[in-house]
Structures are given as C-alpha cells and as structure tokens.
C-alpha cells in the first residue's frame, strides 16, 4: 500500500494554506513579480509562466507525491506565494507515512519577514506530526542559498549535511546542471520543543499586527 499525499486546508492567524488550484493563478502572477532579488536559487515562475507552473504542480499532485498549496495572506485575502508537501516515504506494510518533505516554497517580497513563512511551516509540520504521525519532516535547499538556509534554521530544522549533485539546479543559466543540496530535518522527538518555539515566534508576529 502506498501513501497518496492529499493536503487539507490549513489556517492560522496570519496565513491560510489552500490546496493549489488554477483560481490562484492571477494572484500568484502578481506575487511572483514583486521583488525577484531573493529568487536566485528558487523555482519561482515569471508572471507569464504562472499558468504553466500551476499546471505542472497539479500534474505532480495527480501522482500522489506532491500536495501543493497557495499561501493566502489573511490580511489581504490574496495568494502571496506557494508551498507543498513533497516526497512521501513509507516503509511500513500498512502504508502509513514515515517521512515527508516540505518544499517548493516561495513568497512575494512583501510577505517575507511578516511571519507568514513561520506560521505556514508551523501548520505544515503540526499536521504532518499530529495527523500523519511521521517520524521526520525534511527540508532542503541549494547549498549556496544562504537566505533559504537561514530561514529553514529559523523554523527549528536541524542541518544534516550537504548532498553533492543531489537535484536539479534552479539557478539562472544552470538549467542542465545539478546542484548540491543542504539537507535539514525535524524528527518526531524534536517536534514538541520545536513546536513551542515556533508557536511563540508566530505569536510575536501576530501581536505586532493586532
């Protein structure tokens, strides 16, 4: 029995994670063009490419190996980025999930540093550990992406190392190259402490907007 990823709607105080659909295309086209200076190593489509981007993510979702989300700012009601559950892994005969990755994440420039990323990660991690009962959640990024590595560390994930030539590079001009990937994780044993710290961090952002 294999596990098919199906991500439910998840909502917090700052962000609502809605399963990605084509109705998010217009908002994401605007979000993707706000400030592209932070996207050097991340797969973020241009406005004209968002329709194909959404179709590609939905095609991956149809395989059961990806559950893509639009990140909806509750302050504006608009989609300001995307994220996903990805690469479910199970070693048990009953098909229950052992591990999953959180990835394909990007945010509009105006949404960065607002707490949306922190709360989105809190919602995704909490569902994975509490509902699916995973033993670990993985995150990875281009080893050169210092901004992304800092953001991953800030949500409580532990750096495990760099895997060389691990996956496709998304850097401009490197379409046919492989990248080194920095690997991070949170284990089930670490999650309660991580959850408390992440919830406190999110609460700080919420208090600033109250």
List descriptors:
210 residues; alpha+beta; eight-stranded mixed beta sheet; 5 helices; 8 strands; 30% strand
Average residue-wise pLDDT: 93
Write out the strand line-up for the largest beta sheet, numbering strands in chain order: 1-2-3-4-5-6-8-7
What percent of residues adopt helix (DSSP H or I)?
Answer: 25-40%
**H/E order of the elements?**
EEHHEEEHEHEEH
What does the main sheet amount to?
A: 8 strands, mixed
Quick one: how many beta strands? 8
Q: Which spans have pLDDT < 50 for at least 5 consecutive residues? A: none
Cα gyration radius (Å): 16 Å
> First CA to last CA: what distance?
46 Å
Q: Approximately how much beta-strand content do the residues carry?
A: 25-35%
What does the secondary structure layout of this molecule look like, with pairings?
Layout: E1 10-11, E2 15-19, H1 25-32, H2 50-62, E3 66-73, E4 79-89, E5 99-107, H3 116-130, E6 136-142, H4 146-154, E7 158-168, E8 178-187, H5 191-209
Parallel strand pairs: 5-6
Antiparallel strand pairs: 1-2, 2-3, 3-4, 4-5, 6-8, 7-8
Helix pairs in contact: 3-5
């Amino acid at each position: 029995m294999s596990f098919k990823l199906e991500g439910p709607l998840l909502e917090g105080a700052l962000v609502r994670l809605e399963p990605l659909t084509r109705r998010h295309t217009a908002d994401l086209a605007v979000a993707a063009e706000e400030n592209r200076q932070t996207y050097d190593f991340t797969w973020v489509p241009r406005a004209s490419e968002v329709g194909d981007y959404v179709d590609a993510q939905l095609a991956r979702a149809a395989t059961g190996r990806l559950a893509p989300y639009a990140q909806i700012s509750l302050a504006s009601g608009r989609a300001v980025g995307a994220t996903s559950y990805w690469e479910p892994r199970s070693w048990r005969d009953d098909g229950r999930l052992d591990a999953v990755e959180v990835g394909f994440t990007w945010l509009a420039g105006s949404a960065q540093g607002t707490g949306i990323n922190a709360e989105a990660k809190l919602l995704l991690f909490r569902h994975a550990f509490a509902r699916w009962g995973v033993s670990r959640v993985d995150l990875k990024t281009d080893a050169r992406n210092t901004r992304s590595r800092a953001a991953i560390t800030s949500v409580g994930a532990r750096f495990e190392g760099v895997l060389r030539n691990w996956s496709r590079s998304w850097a401009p001009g490197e379409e046919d190259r492989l990248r080194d990937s920095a690997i991070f994780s949170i284990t089930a044993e670490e999650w309660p402490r991580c959850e408390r710290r992440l919830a406190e961090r999110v609460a700080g952002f919420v208090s600033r907007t109250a």
